[in-house]
């Protein structure tokens, strides 16, 4: 297996490349159009066919010009729960195969209304799901009730040793662990659902069109 992390120091965005080298197939999680030339070079270097591009979530206002066109050059299906601007996104099956591996697709709405998380082996790629007030593009959850359910019922019920990979790592670590977050997360650990929702309600109300 082959695993790489690509971190943009300027904006903090993190992308991930997973590959089955024996089968020659790869998956990208949260790829960025600006990285397309590097990603293509990495795929070519290891003779990999890109099987899927997976998007945990998206902030339309933060997309640079030509983002979608650049990603199209990677020539693989883009899996995301909600497509922006009214476009139709391909439906994500619960399991995505690549090579001899599989990725489980989990619906984890809350940060944005269409968030997905992707479970591969002992690793969950969950975007900004745990960044309740720290995402550089949206410092509040689009759907607090759904966010509480996604974190407590989907993420925190995974095995304690499961690694959590973030979509942004500017002033925080990119990788943590389910056990650690259950015990220490500043919003979810030692809080009830009502306490969480009351605290979120004190955050500034988001613009109506901020979440996608």
UniProtKB/TrEMBL annotation:
Domain of life: Bacteria
Listed InterPro entries: Metallo-B-lactamas, Mito_Persulfide_Diox, RibonucZ/Hydroxyglut_hydro
SUPFAM superfamilies, alphabetized: Metallo-hydrolase/oxidoreductase
Domain Metallo-beta-lactamase: 12-168
UniProt-listed Gene3D superfamilies: Ribonuclease Z/Hydroxyacylglutathione hydrolase-like
Record protein name field: Metallo-beta-lactamase domain-containing protein
Species whose genome carries this gene: Azohydromonas lata
Source organism phylogeny: Bacteria, Pseudomonadati, Pseudomonadota, Betaproteobacteria, Burkholderiales
């Amino acid at each position: 297996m082959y695993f790489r992390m690509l971190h943009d120091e300027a904006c903090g965005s993190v992308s991930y490349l997973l590959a089955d080298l024996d089968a020659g197939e790869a998956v990208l999680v949260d790829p960025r159009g600006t990285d397309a030339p590097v990603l293509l070079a990495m795929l070519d270097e290891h003779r990999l066919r890109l099987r899927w591009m997976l998007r945990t979530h998206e902030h339309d206002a933060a997309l640079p010009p030509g983002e979608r066109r650049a990603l199209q050059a990677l020539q693989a299906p883009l899996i995301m729960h909600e497509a922006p601007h009214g476009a139709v996104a391909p439906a994500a099956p619960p399991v995505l195969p690549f090579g001899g591996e599989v990725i489980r697709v989990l619906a984890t709405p809350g940060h944005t209304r269409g968030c997905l998380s992707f479970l591969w082996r002992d690793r969950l790629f969950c975007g900004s799901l745990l960044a309740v007030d720290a995402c550089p593009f949206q410092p509040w959850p689009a759907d607090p009730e759904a966010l509480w359910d996604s974190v407590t019922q989907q993420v925190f019920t995974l095995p304690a040793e499961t690694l959590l990979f973030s979509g942004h790592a500017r002033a925080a670590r990119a990788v943590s662990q389910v056990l650690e977050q259950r015990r220490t997360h500043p919003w979810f650990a030692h809080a009830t659902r009502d306490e969480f929702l009351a605290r979120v309600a004190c955050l500034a109300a988001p613009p109506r069109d901020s979440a996608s």
